[in-house]
Amino acid sequence: xxxxxxxxxxxxxxxxxxxxxxxxxxxxxxxxxxxxxxxxxxxxxxxxxxxxxxxxxxxxxxxxx
Length: 65
Prior knowledge:
Layout: H1 5-14, E1 18-21, E2 24-27, H2 31-48
Antiparallel strand pairs: 1-2
Helix pairs in contact: 1-2
């Protein structure tokens, strides 16, 4: 089961930025890059949705006939 992107970002933020050991070193993307990726993916998902993302409603004040 795939993890949610927000969960992955949270885990990466809690972990170290860089780790090294006997087998080598590992470095994660910066948090700003992860946030930009999250915004990009959210915008792609929003572009796929039907409609423009704007809701038009008619407001009728109470007491008007």
